[in-house]
Amino acid sequence: xxxxxxxxxxxxxxxxxxxxxxxxxxxxxxxxxxxxxxxxxxxxxxxxxxxxxxxxxxxxxxxxxxxxxxxxxxxxxxxxxxxxxxxxxxxxxxxxxxxxxxxxxxxxxxxxxxxxxxxxxxxxxxxxxxxxxxxxxxxxxxxxxxxxxxxxxxxxxxxxxxxxxxxxxxxx
Length: 172
Prior knowledge:
By secondary structure, the protein is α+β, with helices and mostly antiparallel strands. The chain has helices at 62-78, 92-102, 117-121, 160-171; strands at 3-10, 13-18, 32-34, 40-42, 50-55, 82-88, 107-111, 125-126, 131-132, 135-139, 145-150. The chain has a five-stranded mixed beta sheet with strand order 7-6-5-10-11.
């Protein structure tokens, strides 16, 4: 498996990402993750809508909490042609608990804890921590990657404006 270093840090300390870098214009890898009821879900099941995939280390951390709440707010304005997914290595039970406590109901949380399939296929699995790096992928309705944003420092939020602009460009 490809290892990439020097592009991602936590508090300035470099970490290694596993998997190759996903590029704009490529078909999104169709991996299987788990929903909050432990049922397997394939990424391809979201085809037909513009799909925002936000990968985060853990919903139980401040930055991931803020990011997922922000995408939950934005999802209400994006309309029915857009689905927003947040994928982490958190257990599905923890994700369900967090969503209930946070009042998040416009974002679908999915767990990659079992096989780290999405982390590896999308190139965001942190080797040293077995967590997902903070990144955002925007897929068009056919499942083609149209936008990629790897947040180089794990403690920082993504550029929401750039993500929303990419989504808007696919809706017009």
